[in-house]
């Protein structure tokens, strides 16, 4: 493995679906109530594994269609995608459909790239407009070959699992680094209503989705040595706005 190799995860979605909040919870375990529109933010994390450095970039994109050239560039340079909508906004899922179609048109190897669809704001269940069965039906009938689950950035529910899973699908060894953190955070979901049922349903849902992604997802087309966990997986090395 080349030292300093970079991998880019791009998170797409309409405005106000919680893309920045999802990233903030993952990197800093923090949720901001105040909404601030994003044009483009790049979050970098460097891992030192077995004497080598691996850089993972998380690109937070604009929630509007005002920057088509920027969106095309983000699609062309990504190694993996998180497509985000809000369960209380059916129009936001239409945006996800558009973005997925653009990925399919622009990337000839789209079916080899890790893609996960995220329904955010599960804490707004009573205001739901997008039902999970409808999302699963679109994924199946249109052969999206992607994972799917619902999360809550506000409650930090299934956020870490989301990133762990997509890094695993990308065959990145840094996914192993998240396992001990994930175990420590399990207790944080104890106060979430319906937690046990939703966690079980989401886990089973993701397992089923993975069957559709059984093709090679490797972003590294070469043999790797075994890796040891990084010393400080929680460190956020840089944030570029």
UniProtKB/TrEMBL annotation:
The lineage of its organism: Eukaryota, Metazoa, Echinodermata, Eleutherozoa, Echinozoa. Belongs to the small GTPase superfamily. RasD family. SUPFAM superfamilies: P-loop containing nucleoside triphosphate hydrolases. GO terms for molecular function: GTP binding; GTPase activity. It comes from Stichopus japonicus (Sea cucumber). PANTHER family: GTP-BINDING PROTEIN DI-RAS2, MIP08469P. GO terms for cellular component: plasma membrane. The keyword GTP-binding applies. Residues 218-228 have a biased composition (Basic residues). It is found in: Cell membrane. The keyword Membrane applies. It is a lipid-anchor. InterPro entries: P-loop_NTPase (IPR027417), Small_GTP-bd (IPR005225), Small_GTPase (IPR001806), Small_GTPase_RasD (IPR052236). It comes from the Eukaryota. Its main location: membrane. Residues 192-241 are annotated as: Disordered. Residues 201-215 have a biased composition (Basic and acidic residues). This is Putative GTP-binding protein Di-Ras2-like. Keywords: Cell membrane, GTP-binding, Lipoprotein, Membrane, Methylation, Nucleotide-binding, Prenylation.
